[in-house]
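Why RNA polymerase-associated protein rtf1? Reviewers of the renewal asked for a concrete example.
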Amino acid sequence: MYHGRKHMIQTQAGQEPSQTSKESGEESTKTNTTNTTETNGMVTIEQIRSVRMTRKLIEHWLHEPFFNKVMKGMFVRVNLGGFGGTPVYKIAQIGDVIEGSSYDLGSKNTSKYFILKIAKESKRFSLKYVSNSSIQQKEFEDWRQTMISYNVPLPTTENIKSLRKQLSDAKNHVYTHKEIDQMIAKNKKNKPTLAVHLQDLEFQLEAAKQIKDYKKEIEIKNQMKELNEEIEKKRAKFTHSQQKILEINERNQLINEKILFESEQNKKTQQNNNSEFDPFVRRACKPVNQATIDMENEEQNGVDNNNNNNNNNNNNNLNDPKNIEEKEEKQSRQDQQEIEELNSFEIDLKKYPSGRILQLPYNFEIDLEIKFEQFPKIPIKHN
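Here is what the prediction returned.
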C-alpha cells in the first residue's frame, strides 16, 4: 500500500533534473524544497484530516452495508486515556473492523470494534473512543516522528487520493437489491420498535428511489402506511390505558383514605373500651379480696335502703319528738357496741356466713393473757 522510504528518495532524486526552472542561491533551494514536498509523497496534516473519520460519522454509517469496507485504511483521532489529568490523543489508522461484545454508541447499539495501528503496534479499540475534534499539529508531528522512528513508511499522496475516492464512493453509494434485502432481514432479526422500523423503511425508500425500483418503492410505501396506522392505534390504546390507570389510582386512593379513617376510629374505640388492659397505662395495685368487696356491697345496700326510707319519711318524721328519742337511743346503743368491740379481739361468726371467714382480709388468731385483777375495773356509763 505504501512505498518505502528508499523508493521515495530515489523518486525525488530522479525528478530533480527534470525541473524546467533553474535558479541559483536561496530561490533555487526554496523551489527544490517545495517540489520535494509535493512530489516525494510525504503526507501533510491537511491530507490526514481529509481522510479522518469522526465518531459522529461512524455512528451515522454504523449499520450501512459498506461500513467495514469504507473504514479500512481511514485515520482516526483516538483517546488513549489521561496523563496528569489531561486526556491524551493519538493519530491511528484503522487496520480492520471486527465483532465483539455489544455496547452502546450514542443512540445505537453495536458489536463492532476497530483494530487501530500506530507504527508497528496494533490494538483493539471500541468505536466510542474515537474523537470528534480535529487533529492538532503536535499530534501530527508525534505520529510522523513515531512512524519514522520505527521505519514504517508514511502514506503517500497517491494513498491519500485512494482513501478520498473510497470515502466519496461511500457517500454516493447506490444500494443493490441484495443489500436492501439484507437490511430488511437484519431489521426483522433485531425486532426493532415501530419508530425504528419506520425510520428504516424511510431509509429503504430513499434507496429504492436511487436505483429506480418502482415496484420496491410502492411496496415500502404500503408498509409505511400500515406501520403508521399501527402506531396510531398503539398511541390511542396507550392514552386510553393511561386514563384507566389514572381512574384506578384515584379510586384506590379514596378507598385507602377511608380504610385509614375507619382504622383510626376503631383504634380509639378499642382504647376507650379496654383502657384498663393497656400495659402502658398506670393503674391502682391495692390488693382486694372477695370478703371486702361483699362487705362493701352489703354496707352500700344498707345505706341505700336507709336513704330510701329516710327520703320517704323524712318530711313526716322530722319534727316528731318520739322519733327523736328513738334516734338518740339507737345512736347510744351503737356507741356502746363500738366500745365493746374495741375491747374485744373475738370475731363474731354470726356476722359472716359459713365459709366466708377464710376470705377475711386478716385471717389470724391472737391469744393474749392479761391479768385484769391488778387493775381496778373501769365502770362504763350509759347515757
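The longest strand covers residues 86-105. This is the kind of structural detail the renewal will allow us to pursue systematically.
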